[in-house]
Amino acid sequence: MTSKLEPEERKALLNALEDTGWRAADGQDALIKRLLFKDFSAAWGFMSQAALCAEKMDHHPDWRNVYNKLEITLTTHDCGGVSVLDIELAGALDSLAEGVAEVDRDIGRPVMRLTEPVEKEKD
Questions:
Q1: Are 21 and 71 in contact (CB under 8 A)?
Q2: Measured CA distances, 120 to 8, 66, 110, 111, 116 (Å)
């Protein structure tokens, strides 16, 4: 079984990923990144390639896609947090995204989900 990264490992490995746009996910021991693509087809094409890569690694991302936006969350459920598998998959996804996606660094802006009700503005 894969184990969670120790604090020293986390610092060393996560610093490099932060430079590529990965962040700590709110409320869980996970990495999160948002990518913006030219259009839906480009996002879907990336997701298809990413799925094949993840399958080969036997480590799968959690993700949400809305049109040209993709939010990827990585965590290792077996150990309850970030492991070396997440670091390796993040690097592989970064390589796939190079030249085809832009990193959305405004991580505070949530990706809208179609199932969420739209709140009406107060008068």
A1: no
A2: 46, 21, 17, 18, 12
Amino acid type, 56: K
Do 20 and 103 meet the contact criterion of CB atoms below 8 Å apart?
yes
Q: Match domain 23-103 to its CATH number in 3.20.20.60, 1.10.1040.10, 3.30.1360.20, 3.40.50.1000.
A: 3.30.1360.20
pLDDT tens, position by position, 34-76: 999 999 999 999 999 999 999 999 999 999 999 999 999 999 9
Q: What is the CA radius of gyration of the chain?
A: 15
Q: What span, in angstroms and rounded, lies between the C-alpha atoms of 43 and 4?
A: 30
- Global pTM reads 0.81
Q: Domain extents for the chain? A: 23-103
Q: Is 24 exposed, middle or buried (0-12, 13-18, 19+ CB in 10 A)?
A: middle
